């Protein structure tokens, strides 16, 4: 009653043993594929962790760097500016992690929140009545009168380039893990299970427990079993090329570190631009939002405090060259895995599974 290990000679196998062998080959194949995948998956997971830690570190530095601008140069509004700054960097973090938001909406929302503070604390520091309606009017007016000139758009442009590559790389790495996990649990067909039993365990039914499959025979069986997995080869090669492109984008002109630390200087330039155009802005705002109550005898011109960009940025970028080194190491490793899915049958037939340097092996029917 044997279905797989049929042979002319007497046999010590039963149908129940064949079923046990089928369960065994399915389990063994899953384990062997998982072993192959482990190193590759470990590298990707490790890079995801390193990338996210480095990114969070960058964000924290850039947020503190930006907050210090208000504490040193624009003290009258420092306390109220803390929340918009925090929201900006939270939004940027969510964007990189794949949230349904855009860099432009995050940056412009920040400048919408900043304008009421700049207007009431720096341009017209005598304003005492900053009601919700008046604040909202100032927020909406910001979009029309553009008090920060080109600087708000500059922030969007600079961040969009560098954060886009970071967002795509983050998503691409997660996709790589998803692909590997899926191939680990690929279902073996009945024909494949039978072929594997015939290759690995049918010799046992003849008492040949030490004989192993011939190399060519093993390759034929494995290629047949893993045809669907090896079809990923072209897409996997393209995926590696995309990772290479994205890491180059991040390390080149769209450098994440420089873009994030440059936010502070751009905000400073934007505030100075608004202060220098204070009289024109006030005239427009009075027409649109009305005139709020003011205290007498307070002039705004004294509050213009130019701030030079601090040199901490250079130190910071040098401190994060290790991030670029990690990127290079990672992409060099991934490039070596280009043929991972094309050569999966060869790798599974390598090692102890097949007979090497021997005159005899099992060809599926007999010892040859």
TrEMBL record:
The keyword Cell membrane applies. It comes from the Eukaryota. Transmembrane segments: none annotated. It is found in: Cell membrane. Its main location: membrane. One of its GO terms (biological process) is regulation of protein localization to membrane. It is a lipid-anchor; GPI-anchor. The keyword Signal applies. Keywords: Cell membrane, Glycoprotein, GPI-anchor, Heparan sulfate, Lipoprotein, Membrane, Proteoglycan, Signal. InterPro entries: Glypican, Glypican_CS. One of its GO terms (cellular component) is cell surface. PANTHER family: GLYPICAN (PTHR10822), GLYPICAN-5 (PTHR10822:SF19). Cell surface proteoglycan. Belongs to the glypican family. This is GPC5 protein.
